Amino acid sequence: IPGYGDSPPVEMAVTAQGRRTFLEHVFQELGMQRPVLVSPSMSGRFSLPFLLAHGDQLAGFVPIAPVGTKDYTAAQYRGVQTPTLILYGDRDTRLAPQALQNLQHLPEHRVAVLPGAGHACYLDKPEAFHRALLGFLRQLK
Protein backbone atom coordinates (compact mmCIF):
# COMPACT_ATOMS: atom_id res chain seq x y z
CA ILE A 1 0.00 0.00 0.00
CA PRO A 2 1.57 3.31 -1.04
CA GLY A 3 2.69 5.38 1.93
CA TYR A 4 2.74 2.46 4.39
CA GLY A 5 5.72 0.50 5.62
CA ASP A 6 8.79 1.38 3.58
CA SER A 7 6.86 2.45 0.47
CA PRO A 8 7.05 6.09 -0.60
CA PRO A 9 3.93 8.23 -0.24
CA VAL A 10 1.82 8.72 -3.36
CA GLU A 11 0.16 12.11 -3.75
CA MET A 12 -3.05 10.71 -5.22
CA ALA A 13 -3.51 8.42 -2.18
CA VAL A 14 -4.56 11.38 0.00
CA THR A 15 -8.26 11.22 -0.97
CA ALA A 16 -10.70 8.34 -1.44
CA GLN A 17 -11.13 9.34 -5.10
CA GLY A 18 -7.36 9.38 -5.56
CA ARG A 19 -7.00 5.95 -3.97
CA ARG A 20 -9.76 4.61 -6.23
CA THR A 21 -7.99 6.09 -9.26
CA PHE A 22 -4.68 4.61 -8.12
CA LEU A 23 -6.25 1.14 -8.00
CA GLU A 24 -7.85 1.70 -11.43
CA HIS A 25 -4.37 2.45 -12.79
CA VAL A 26 -2.89 -0.66 -11.17
CA PHE A 27 -5.53 -2.90 -12.77
CA GLN A 28 -5.11 -1.13 -16.12
CA GLU A 29 -1.31 -1.42 -16.08
CA LEU A 30 -1.51 -5.11 -15.20
CA GLY A 31 -4.12 -5.68 -17.91
CA MET A 32 -6.48 -7.31 -15.44
CA GLN A 33 -10.00 -8.18 -16.57
CA ARG A 34 -12.55 -8.74 -13.79
CA PRO A 35 -10.07 -9.59 -11.02
CA VAL A 36 -10.96 -10.77 -7.54
CA LEU A 37 -9.84 -8.06 -5.11
CA VAL A 38 -8.51 -9.41 -1.80
CA SER A 39 -8.33 -6.58 0.72
CA PRO A 40 -6.82 -7.02 4.19
CA SER A 41 -6.76 -4.27 6.81
CA MET A 42 -5.30 -0.94 5.62
CA SER A 43 -5.93 -1.76 1.96
CA GLY A 44 -9.61 -1.09 2.65
CA ARG A 45 -8.84 2.59 2.11
CA PHE A 46 -8.16 1.68 -1.54
CA SER A 47 -10.52 -1.23 -2.15
CA LEU A 48 -13.72 0.22 -0.70
CA PRO A 49 -13.82 3.37 -2.86
CA PHE A 50 -13.07 1.18 -5.89
CA LEU A 51 -15.74 -1.37 -4.95
CA LEU A 52 -18.42 1.28 -4.51
CA ALA A 53 -17.58 3.01 -7.80
CA HIS A 54 -16.57 0.05 -9.98
CA GLY A 55 -17.72 -3.13 -8.26
CA ASP A 56 -19.09 -4.33 -11.60
CA GLN A 57 -15.49 -4.55 -12.86
CA LEU A 58 -14.64 -7.13 -10.19
CA ALA A 59 -15.39 -10.85 -10.37
CA GLY A 60 -15.30 -10.91 -6.58
CA PHE A 61 -14.30 -9.05 -3.44
CA VAL A 62 -12.67 -10.55 -0.31
CA PRO A 63 -12.44 -8.02 2.53
CA ILE A 64 -10.40 -9.24 5.50
CA ALA A 65 -11.27 -6.88 8.37
CA PRO A 66 -10.56 -3.82 6.22
CA VAL A 67 -10.35 -0.31 7.64
CA GLY A 68 -12.71 2.39 6.44
CA THR A 69 -15.97 0.44 6.29
CA LYS A 70 -17.74 2.98 8.51
CA ASP A 71 -17.04 5.72 5.95
CA TYR A 72 -19.91 4.45 3.77
CA THR A 73 -23.64 4.02 4.31
CA ALA A 74 -25.75 0.87 4.29
CA ALA A 75 -27.46 2.23 1.17
CA GLN A 76 -24.11 2.58 -0.62
CA TYR A 77 -23.21 -1.00 0.23
CA ARG A 78 -26.64 -2.25 -0.86
CA GLY A 79 -25.97 -0.84 -4.35
CA VAL A 80 -23.00 -3.18 -4.90
CA GLN A 81 -23.72 -6.51 -6.64
CA THR A 82 -20.16 -7.90 -6.49
CA PRO A 83 -19.95 -11.41 -4.98
CA THR A 84 -18.20 -10.92 -1.63
CA LEU A 85 -16.57 -13.19 0.93
CA ILE A 86 -16.28 -11.34 4.25
CA LEU A 87 -13.42 -13.17 5.93
CA TYR A 88 -11.91 -12.64 9.38
CA GLY A 89 -10.43 -14.31 12.44
CA ASP A 90 -12.60 -14.75 15.51
CA ARG A 91 -9.86 -13.31 17.74
CA ASP A 92 -9.95 -9.99 15.87
CA THR A 93 -12.39 -8.43 18.30
CA ARG A 94 -11.77 -4.80 17.36
CA LEU A 95 -11.80 -4.27 13.60
CA ALA A 96 -13.53 -7.42 12.34
CA PRO A 97 -16.90 -6.85 14.13
CA GLN A 98 -17.05 -3.26 12.87
CA ALA A 99 -16.23 -4.33 9.32
CA LEU A 100 -18.81 -7.13 9.45
CA GLN A 101 -21.48 -4.75 10.78
CA ASN A 102 -20.97 -2.48 7.76
CA LEU A 103 -20.15 -4.98 5.02
CA GLN A 104 -23.12 -7.24 5.79
CA HIS A 105 -25.21 -4.73 3.80
CA LEU A 106 -23.53 -5.96 0.59
CA PRO A 107 -26.34 -8.02 -0.98
CA GLU A 108 -24.13 -10.73 -2.51
CA HIS A 109 -22.04 -11.55 0.57
CA ARG A 110 -21.23 -14.57 2.59
CA VAL A 111 -19.10 -14.80 5.74
CA ALA A 112 -16.19 -17.05 6.72
CA VAL A 113 -14.83 -16.89 10.27
CA LEU A 114 -11.48 -18.52 11.02
CA PRO A 115 -11.45 -19.94 14.58
CA GLY A 116 -8.34 -19.15 16.59
CA ALA A 117 -7.13 -16.49 14.15
CA GLY A 118 -6.50 -12.83 14.87
CA HIS A 119 -6.48 -9.74 12.66
CA ALA A 120 -3.93 -11.23 10.23
CA CYS A 121 -5.98 -14.43 9.92
CA TYR A 122 -4.18 -15.45 6.71
CA LEU A 123 -0.93 -15.63 8.73
CA ASP A 124 -2.45 -17.22 11.84
CA LYS A 125 -4.43 -19.93 10.02
CA PRO A 126 -3.12 -20.11 6.43
CA GLU A 127 -4.65 -23.49 5.57
CA ALA A 128 -8.13 -22.49 6.76
CA PHE A 129 -7.74 -19.13 5.01
CA HIS A 130 -6.83 -20.76 1.71
CA ARG A 131 -9.66 -23.29 1.99
CA ALA A 132 -12.19 -20.47 2.48
CA LEU A 133 -10.70 -18.35 -0.30
CA LEU A 134 -10.46 -21.20 -2.82
CA GLY A 135 -14.00 -22.33 -2.01
CA PHE A 136 -15.23 -18.81 -2.76
CA LEU A 137 -13.20 -18.54 -5.97
CA ARG A 138 -14.57 -21.86 -7.26
CA GLN A 139 -18.14 -20.56 -6.97
CA LEU A 140 -17.52 -17.40 -8.99
CA LYS A 141 -18.72 -17.21 -12.59
UniProtKB/TrEMBL annotation:
Matches recorded under Gene3D superfamilies: alpha/beta hydrolase
Organism: Zosterops hypoxanthus
Name of the protein described by the UniProt record: ABHEA protein
Signal peptide as annotated in the record: none
The entry's keywords: Cytoplasm
Cellular-component GO terms for this entry: cytoplasm
Subcellular location(s) per record: Cytoplasm
Gene assigned in the entry: Abhd14a
